[in-house]
């Protein structure tokens, strides 16, 4: 069994102190211009102080027009660097491997946040989105790389490319969404070109001690599991990234596609030869027992979302109690405030069914 409290080495950047990564979590706490707020600073630094080996920001948009939700952290302008530097310094001082997740919402950008239509690989009538020209895709790549360089300038240990959850990189990969006929459309090689181009450029234009991860969802949003497996095989073989973060919604589920139900979804990836690339997963890893089960299943690290929200010090709680289970839901607003969530984040969590007790509920 992999010891969850053993260090995790990467090909680039400092080791993680353990096998726990805080998931990149939407928290709605940044200022309207994308600059860091005190509430967001507290939320993230508290997790580093609580023992998470790696701490990621929320999805941070690399282009102003790529915003995905209100209160989103930005990394599209130099005016963001001051706050990002403050954040990186605190996370690093607390011993965490600090990460910015780089994001563009694509067709999922709410129209009320921008002038003009949302951007997408292809026109999408449902979202009122407009397909990007070839030159515009190349400019989008420039924005991702510029954001990575800002993260490095601010002192973060690395970045993660958000290719999951049906956002723009995943939209390019999806054969359902991407209907292009240029070098970014058609074959899987073309549809995944933007991802591999970004990996190559971030690796070339950032320093040798800067880590690079990728987040992928193998299901939903028009993704085909067989194609995602092919992409992952190439990511492992190329050895250009340091880790792959799979967002599975349920780490222990079987695949949705009939042709792949012969084994658990996770095993389709843990069975691949991964070389030095580290593999982690998010999705229903809630208890100490779940952590051990996931690591026993072949993962190098676990990515915690809800449990990281409920307990800023989940790793330390588990280290002290091998049978640790997080607080039962629903929890009070006071519990979440004590765990470092600001009012906007608590309001957002109140929209998750059964997560936050009504204010008038008995204690």
Name a few traits of the molecule.
363 residues; alpha/beta; TIM Barrel; eight-stranded parallel barrel; two-stranded parallel ribbon; 10 strands; 34% helix; 13% strand
The largest sheet is:
8 strands, parallel, barrel
The CATH H-level superfamily is Aldolase class I
State the low-pLDDT regions, or none: none
User: How are the strands ordered across the major sheet?
Assistant: 1-2-3-6-7-8-9-10
Per CATH, the architecture is: Alpha-Beta Barrel
Structure in a nutshell:
This protein is of the alpha/beta class and 363 residues long.
Report on the structure:
By secondary structure, the chain is of the alpha/beta class. It has a single domain, classed as Aldolase class I (TIM Barrel), CATH 3.20.20. The chain is built from 13 helices and ten strands. It has helices at residues 38-49, 81-93, 134-154, 168-173, 188-191, 193-205, 225-238, 267-270, 288-296, 306-310, 314-320, 333-338, 343-350; strands spanning 20-22, 54-61, 97-103, 119-120, 130-131, 158-163, 211-216, 243-247, 278-282, 301-304. The strands form two sheets. An eight-stranded parallel barrel has the order 1-2-3-6-7-8-9-10, surrounded by six helices. Strands 4-5 form a two-stranded parallel ribbon. Helix 1 runs parallel beside helix 2 (81-93), helix 2 packs across helix 3 (134-154) and helix 3 (134-154) packs parallel to helix 6. The longest helix has 21 residues, at 134-154. The chain is globular. The mean pLDDT is 97.
């Amino acid at each position: 069994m992999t010891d969850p409290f053993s260090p995790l080495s990467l090909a680039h950047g400092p080791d993680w102190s353990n096998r726990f990564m805080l998931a990149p979590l939407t928290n709605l706490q940044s200022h309207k211009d994308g600059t860091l707020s005190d509430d967001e600073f507290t939320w993230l630094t508290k997790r580093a102080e609580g023992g998470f080996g790696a701490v990621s920001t929320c999805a941070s948009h690399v282009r102003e027009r790529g915003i995905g939700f209100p209160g989103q952290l930005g990394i599209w302008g130099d005016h963001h660097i001051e706050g990002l530097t403050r954040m990186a310094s605190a996370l690093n001082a607390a011993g965490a491997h600090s990460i910015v997740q780089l994001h563009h919402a694509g067709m999922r950008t709410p129209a009320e946040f921008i002038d003009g239509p949302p951007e997408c690989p292809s026109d999408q009538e449902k979202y009122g989105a407009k397909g990007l020209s070839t030159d515009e895709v190349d400019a989008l790549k420039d924005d991702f790389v510029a954001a990575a360089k800002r993260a490095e300038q601010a002192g973060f240990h690395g970045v993660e490319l958000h290719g999951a959850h049906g956002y723009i990189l995943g939209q390019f990969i999806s054969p359902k969404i991407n209907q292009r006929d240029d070098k970014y459309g058609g074959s899987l090689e073309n549809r995944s070109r933007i991802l591999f181009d970004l990996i190559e450029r971030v690796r070339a234009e950032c320093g040798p001690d800067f880590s690079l991860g990728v987040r992928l969802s193998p299901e939903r949003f028009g993704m085909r599991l067989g194609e995602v497996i092919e992409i992952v095989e190439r990511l492992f073989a190329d050895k250009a990234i340091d880790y792959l973060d799979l967002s599975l919604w349920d780490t222990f589920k079987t695949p949705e596609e009939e042709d792949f139900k012969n084994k658990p979804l996770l095993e389709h990836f843990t069975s691949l030869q991964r070389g030095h690339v580290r593999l982690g997963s998010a999705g229903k890893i809630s208890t100490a027992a779940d952590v051990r089960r996931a690591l026993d299943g072949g993962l190098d690290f676990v990515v915690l979302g809800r449990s990281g929200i409920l307990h800023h010090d989940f790793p330390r709680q588990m280290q002290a109690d091998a049978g640790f289970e997080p607080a039962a839901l629903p929890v009070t607003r006071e519990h979440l405030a004590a765990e470092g969530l600001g009012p906007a984040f608590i309001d957002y969590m109140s929209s998750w069914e059964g997560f936050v007790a009504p204010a008038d509920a008995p204690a």
